[in-house]
Amino acid sequence: MNPTIPYKANDTYKSYREVFYDASLWISDFDFFKTELLFLKVLLKSNSFKSNIPNLFERLQLLIKEVDQFTEENNILNKKAKHLSNFVGGIIKKDVFSFNDDYLEQYHNLAEEVFLFTQKYKNFKRGLYEFLSEIIL
Asked: Coil, strand, or helix at residue 44?
């Protein structure tokens, strides 16, 4: 499922503190997504569904595979956000601000990845919830 809204970087420049703040928000979101994905996987593996649905088992297995893929991607993005947060946080703690804008390129690349992941994840959940609402006992 493709994102419905294309990514657009609104700020071409962000301070170290703004990047650190955004990375902290992303990390918090990824921690929530991790818990949510674990719940969805447990739900999909439960016996809470009508048994008279054709190809139900196969469909559930495909959904579990998608949840696993989102979990893996979530973990990768979480590591990238933590790396960026640690890098920028270290600069802030040293209170020595260089004029190296490499962190901005890293930030914008990660911001786009996070945006695309979030859009894809929302689309997946919308479809999953619609499916589950039809098959839950």
From this structure: helix
- Identity of the amino acid at 42: V
Of 35, 16, 37, nearest to 87 (Cα)?
Answer: 16
d(CA 27, CA 21): 10
Which residues are within 8 A (CB) of 114 and not within 5 positions of it... i.e. 6 or more apart? 26, 77, 81
For residue 52, what pLDDT is reported?
A: 82
From 34-43, 49-58, 69-78, 117-126, the region with the lowest mean pLDDT: 49-58
On whether the CB atoms of residues 78 and 27 are closer than 8 A, the answer is yes
The Cα–Cα gap between 115 and 51 comes to: 37
Amino acid of residue 5: I
